[in-house]
Amino acid sequence: MRLAKCTYGKVEEYLKKSDMIVIPVGSTENHGKHMPLGTDFLIPDKIIELLEKKNDVLVAPTIPYGATDTLMGFPGTISIGVDGLIMLLSKVTESLRRYGFRKFVILNGHGGNNKSIETVGMKLYKEGCLLADLNWWSMVGELNPDWKGGHGGGEETAAVMGVDPSLVDMDLIHEPMGLIDDIDPSMKTTGWSTVDYKGATVIIPREMIQYSGNGWYGKDAPDTATQEWGKEMLQSFTDWMDDFLQSFAKVELPKLPE
Description:
about 35% helix, 2 domains, 4-stranded parallel sheet, Rossmann fold, alpha/beta
């Protein structure tokens, strides 16, 4: 049930039976040459669409912006930063808490959002609430190891195909990752902000555009994705999420110190 489509009277009725709300959070950012900038909120939106067929939990409007500083430089990427997302989530949950919501489920589509979400979750905990952070892309890899993937790789590409295959540019899906040793020839780029120096991993924070020739990263090449994989993966996660929400609804809230 979408908050945006409810009257305030309907929300009042909902709160008589439940204090839980789902908040989808994503980002607008590069996902490789073959993928749309809205990947990280389009996928959570699809999961919510599937969830509505199974569960009447209230769902707040999707937040399409996140902490994506490392992906700036790719045209179209928008970042509100860690602090910006903390402020936005704090204001949203503060408003909802005023009316009686106490259990907040974040359906998150972007890893860079986690620091902000956890910060807000701790604040809510101290106020007698609970926040659950559901990172769909990492959790599906736990449900099925074959689905585990990186940024803009096969996993996310399959998920977008499960949303709408026309959003994936098939002419560019075969292009290699093309990592660049941008720091120094003696420091091989190995991953997200990481380099290898004489056998040890060093983290050097910088924008991905400096060391990525394509904009996607991971062991799961995008051209391994299929629509069937995406649909199965999204439905499986939706089924899991439905079960989790039913259990989370029964969990006791933290007791505030007297």
